[in-house]
Amino acid sequence: MGSDFSNYEELVRMKIKETGEKGISQQELARAVGIPARDVAVIVKKLIERKVIAKKAIKENGKNVIKLFPLRNSEVKLYVKLETVNEIPCMRCGLLSKCGDGTHISPSTCGKLSGWMLTNIGGA
């Protein structure tokens, strides 16, 4: 299901994008794209994690309904010198593979990263 799954993912993303500000419920989405609801749930979770779509509770006919909405893609081109990236402490850290938001080892609690940021980009 590998390449099929990525095709389904693109189909789901496009269908949600088509709905725009109106949004679409997950059940409606599964019917519209003809994919099993369980597969749609997995795809939706991935798209939310990647910040491509968002789930929001809205009032519709007096009822709370959870709908999926596309997030605006504000593309920004950013050019960075490779030397600058190599200076970031994370690039030499032995704990990089265990580091992440919400984990025990996290960028938000890393003293080395905080110190580097204050020294190198704090006054930017």
TrEMBL record:
Name-wise, this protein is B-block binding subunit of TFIIIC domain-containing protein
Which Pfam family, any one of them, does this sequence belong to?
Answer: B-block_TFIIIC
Identify the species of origin.
Answer: Sulfuracidifex tepidarius
Q: Which residues form the B-block binding subunit of TFIIIC domain?
A: 18-64
User: What lineage, starting at the top, does this entry show?
Assistant: Archaea, Thermoproteota, Thermoprotei, Sulfolobales, Sulfolobaceae
Domain of life (superkingdom): Archaea
Supply the Gene3D superfamilies for this chain.
Winged helix-like DNA-binding domain superfamily/Winged helix DNA-binding domain
